[in-house]
Amino acid sequence: MAVAIAHLAENVKRRLFIAALWRRAIWTSRPRMLPSPPAATTSRGASLDPFRRGVLVRIPKAFLSIPVRGARVSLAAIACLALWLAVAAGPAMAKTISIVALGDSNTYGYGIKRPGTYPSQLEILLQARGYDVDIVNRGVSGDTTFDALGRLEKAVPEGTDALILFLGRNDWRRNTPPSAISHNLEIIIGQMRQRGIPVLLVGFKPHDFSDVAEKYGVLYYPDFFDGTMVLNRKLRKYRLGGGDIAGHLNADGYAVVANRMLPSVEQLIAQVSD
Question: Which residue has the higher pLDDT, 238 or 36?
């Protein structure tokens, strides 16, 4: 939140600075004002940017009434106006990136409130860094890789830009051979590649799926629980507690997951941008 406020303050400072430059840049000997053409506005006085249809930007009144007779407008003044439009309308040009987090109870966030899940916390971290992202939680408690295959089309709908894939722990608990887990992950990744959706494959100890990631040329994050475990046991402060025999993470544990995974997800977003 503090980072977002700082970004907003910096944006306001830039706009005020540009407006000041504009006032200094216009020179006139005998200004005679011509009536400005009517500008489409909202009830709050926001003017429609003539260069972007349907996008509202705030333009100072000084920019809407420019002395045109007996006046010379410098190139600096024109540049100031261009800068203002860029600052005001620029952020709206970005397309929201839709990322699906596909997984089991560790993705769903078993036993905790929705804001505490790792997809929710990861989304907040990315937005604080200036990314326009929406992370959709498609975790289902108890899901195996085979189960996920059956709901893949619905879980990853059209319009999805990227996928975070973390599955296999329930397969492992049911003594599914690692080769079968890898095979199902390959099918999921293969379908995503056919659709042009970049993937971040997430592994977990003791299994290593880096060979799958390398085979299909996707990003790989080695251990979902990195930072929450010591000697293959989850730290008590990060465990859900309350009789949870499966040892799920609590919100603090998922905060560690989100922070550790963040750089890899930024690489994933870069692939969407490319």
Answer: 238
Between 244 and 228, the higher pLDDT residue: 228
pLDDT of residue 232: 83
Residue 73 · residue 79 · CB < 8 Å: no
Backbone torsions φ then ψ of 97, nearest 5 degrees: -85, 125
pLDDT at 211 over 60: yes
What pLDDT score does 50 carry?
35
The tens digit of pLDDT for each residue in 259-270 reads 999 999 999 999
